Amino acid sequence: MIIRYSKKIKQLSKLSVLLFLAGCASKTSTKWENYTDEGTFLVYRRQSLIGEESYTLSANKDTITLSSLQGENERGRISGVQTNLLLTTNLTPISYENKRIRAEDTTNNLTVKVKADKIIVKEKFFDTVEHEKLDDFFPLHSNISAGAEMMLYYYCLEKNLKTVPTLPRNEVTITFKKKDTAVIKGEKIPLNRYVVTGINWGGRTIWTDESNKLIAVVKANTQIRELIRKGYEDAKQLFIDGNVEEEIAQLQQYTKEVNGDLSAVKALVGADLVDAVTDVTQKNMTVIIENGKIKTIGKKDEVEIPENAKVIDVSGKTLIPGLFDMHAHSNQVQWGPAYLAGGVTTIRDNGNELEFATAFRDEIAVNGAVGPEILLAGMTDGPGVKGNGIIRARSVEEAKEVVELYHSNGYKQIKIYTSVAPEIVEVLATEAHKRGMTVTGHVPIQARHAKKAVNLGMDMLSHRSRILTVLYSDKVTKNLKRAVYPTLSLNSITDERINDAIDFFLENKTVLDPTIALDVARSLEKGNALETIEPDAYRIAPELWEGKRFRAGLSAQKSKEGRETYIKSMEILGKFYKAGIPIVAGTDNVVPVFSLYLEIETYQKYGNMSAFEALKTATINPATAMGLGEQTGSLEVGKDADIAILDKNPLENITNIRTVSAVVSDGKYYNSNPLWKAADFKPKD
User: In whole angstroms, what is the distance from residue 519 CA to residue 559 CA?
Assistant: First the structure.
């Protein structure tokens, strides 16, 4: 009998042996035996259709095979993701493969193979790792396809698992929230709404039908995307609004957890103080805060502390104005506690979905939720596949409608993106200025250079490469690529050109937002950890690691060229700043929160700025640029009590700006560590 049994095993396929050893063959689900399915998900970025994913699902007696192909044209960048997933008919994973396909290369994002007694994981940027066999797990990463994600939810819901370990890291949780009704071609279709955590930073909102089939996903890893099953696109607004509702509910929970001190009167006693007005550090000071405003600043032994004050001992620390991030894209509420933890009390959101951005801003400003003050710049773009987002200005009429839409929703600025036609930029600027709004953004491709953009009415310009087109206004062509100028060109720029640019920007009172930290990160050599330039990168939420902490990197030569370019660029920008042109610090979300520090540090390191001058780019400069200089941006009596509390003085060394241990925002006092924990970041060691 033993011999006959051994012969039988030898006759089985490798897959059958695997199933036998895994103990899964006897647990076949009759639902999945010989099951077939196919479908398509429409892919939206900021509500604009950019691609689709088609999948096929087939099962035999023992296994289920899922294959999917997602294709995108995201602002002219064409790419795809190919996924193959093999499971048992009990939904136990056997193998998973996910590849990113671009014109120039194919990248294996993640490969997972289950063996008899171990699980082998190969992830991009990592060596192959062997894990012990797990009873329940699912292969998971932030680039998971909609088809594979659908199988994850089948796995959780059919096994009644609220939490599932995932590889290569973390775990996923799925929480039922409510029943929704989608109206599709007049038919009411019941859907189940869930919030899922462990895939992207914070969470995503998903909907399934009554059979647990995935219908829609709304997610964000610093940009919002909607994936909607074809046939359900009429319910897109339901999905957008449902995600906003769940995000705000999460923000309300964070607000309960972090317990900011609400005492109406506070006394910060014993700290040194850097007010951002002068470069002198005031020693051993006391600051009295009353109803969110700075009432008194003075020497510790000279200030009388009110009897009803909550006294907070800040001896040995340094107070500075709360920081600004002037180029944020805060597409999920986790930015709220994360920004405050890092001492950032005001951000300018430079492009977001209107529904989410306004709800996020209002929950903080009106309802007192935890988070920085949010100033909104409403993004608009022109026609074509290279356009960004759903709000477009392709005609004079549309331009007027865009400005009125954003103005009526309390936006401070209009943000121009790259595909807006010059004549439309002029209309947008004229209409914005009529309403007391200003105009910021990219130098549009058709405008060709910064001088033209400013002459069309733009008040502020973003990104180093686009700003420095001002130096080449007689030479720029629309064919220049992202890097814009080779190092040789920057090195050969004459003082005459630089002085002409300075005169032009000063005459037009143009404000510059270089996002130089983006260039620093993009110039990282392949194989180097991001910590070589951004020492706090290891602290970010694990779900952000793939896209933020681990980067593909450049060849040694390209990295050298990139570094030379941003160093020379910063030298020129430093001359602009010394001449009086306002520069404001912004990140464009390279590494959440921490890249603001990198931005400021780079200004000093390569822009010939003092620590005090660099600090002003994230304090009084942006406050003044946004018309808030009388309200915030410096530590002065009568101004808002927006204060970052540091362990060390940044005027002694600008890298000390990273030592934020507490913050006062809107008069509320918070310790940083609970805020970091709420945002799912590691506290400072």
Answer: 10
Rounded to the nearest angstrom, the gap between the alpha carbon of residue 471 and the centroid of all alpha carbons in its chain is 31
Cβ atoms of residues 653 and 611 within 8 Å: yes
Helix (H) or strand (E) holding 340: helix 335-341
Query: Tokens for 291?
Result: 């109803």
How buried is residue 92: exposed, middle or buried, by Cβ count under 10 Å (0-12/13-18/19+)? buried
Contact indicator for 541, 334 with CB cutoff of 8 Å? yes
Largest CA-CA distance found in the chain, in angstroms, rounded: 96
| 370 within 8 A of 255, measured Cβ to Cβ | yes
pLDDT at 481: 44
φ, ψ for residue 678 (rounded to 5)?
A: -60, -35
Q: Please write the tens of the pLDDT for every residue from 409-447.
A: 999 999 999 999 999 999 999 999 999 999 999 999 999
What backbone torsions phi and psi does residue 322 show, to the nearest 5 degrees? Answer: -55, 145
Q: Is 511 in contact with 459 (CB distance < 8 Å)?
A: yes
Q: What is the pTM of this model?
A: 0.92
Q: Do 203 and 197 contact (CB within 8 A), yes or no? A: yes
Show the beta-strand stretches assigned E in 355-449: 373-380, 413-416, 438-441
Residues 51 and 64: their CA atoms lie apart, in Å, by: 26
Peptide bond into 168 cis (omega under 30): yes
Buried b (16+ CB within 10 A) or exposed e, 535-564: ebbebbbbbbbbbbbbbebbeeeebebbbb
Q: Which of 86, 110, 113, 116 is nearest to 98 (CA)?
A: 110
Locate 395 and state its tokens. Answer: 């005609």
Tens digit of each residue's pLDDT (9 = 90 or more) over 12-70: 334 343 433 344 434 445 789 889 999 999 999 889 999 999 999 999 989 999 999 99
Alpha carbon 262 to chain centroid distance? 29
C-alpha of 139 from chain center: 24
The DSSP call for residue 281 is P
The 3-state secondary structure of 63-78 reads EEEEEEEEEEEECCEE
Residue 345 buriedness (CB in 10 A; 0-12 / 13-18 / 19+): buried
Residue type, 666: D
